[in-house]
Design brief:
It comes from Winogradskyella aurantia. This protein has 208 residues and is α/β, with parallel strands linked by helices. The chain has 7 helices and 11 strands. The chain has a single domain, classed as 3-Layer(aba) Sandwich (Rossmann fold). The N terminus is likely disordered.
């Protein structure tokens, strides 16, 4: 099934054949702190989580490592995998710039007896939730306000002013999707946000 939106094309794949663990989705505008939260949760052994590595058709940047940061595929390879129904979800973010979650990645983690945790954009997160409504806990990480979001992006010192402006311009549309998630974690204080996220995930995993 295919859906078209301005500047984007994405697909929801047929359901993967194996259903074992649970799926923990964290989505947010860039700068909200979701990656920090996900990294913290991955260090908690009692949660039994494994990070889902996304596939992309873009080239590696800087010190990014294939199989650790992303699975880097050529455009042809990515499209072949789409045609072969190998993705749980995928999206063309920009022209010929694809990102997606391979079914094999989720099944790899489930085969280890672990739960899958995603650090993923809001569109991908909601698609996974729609595909696996009972198995998925979809958490939206929200900054206290846009001014704080801008400050955090600038403090990173990793991106150009133009790139920061692009991320900030995209944030209102992303924030508007927050009510579609299972729960919203407001990251005004990192310590509180980490504890809140841990408690939410622990309770969900404990549910039968």
């Amino acid at each position: 099934m295919f859906f078209k939106y301005p500047y984007k094309l994405f697909s929801v794949a047929k359901e993967t054949t194996k259903k074992q663990g649970k799926l923990i989705v964290f989505s947010a505008p860039s700068g909200s702190g979701k990656t920090t939260i996900v990294k913290h949760l991955l260090k908690q052994p009692e949660l039994n989580l494994e990070f889902s590595i996304s596939a992309t058709s873009r080239e590696a940047r800087g010190k990014e490592i294939d199989g650790k940061d992303y699975y880097f595929l050529s455009l042809k390879e990515f499209k072949n995998k789409i045609n072969n129904d190998e993705f749980l979800e995928w999206e063309e973010v920009y022209r010929d710039n694809f990102y997606g979650t391979l079914k094999s990645e989720v099944e790899r983690i489930w085969a280890q007896g672990k739960h899958v945790i995603f650090d993923i954009d809001v569109s991908g997160g909601l698609r996974i939730k729609r595909k696996f409504p009972e198995q998925t806990l979809a958490i939206f990480v929200k900054p206290p306000d846009l001014n704080e979001l801008v400050r955090r992006l600038k403090d990173r010192g990793e991106e150009s002013p133009e790139k920061i402006s692009m991320r900030v311009a995209k944030a209102p549309a992303e924030l508007a999707t927050a009510p579609l998630f299972d729960v919203i974690v407001v990251n005004a204080n990192l310590k509180d946000a980490l504890q809140n996220a841990h408690d939410l995930v622990a309770r969900f995993i404990a549910e039968k």
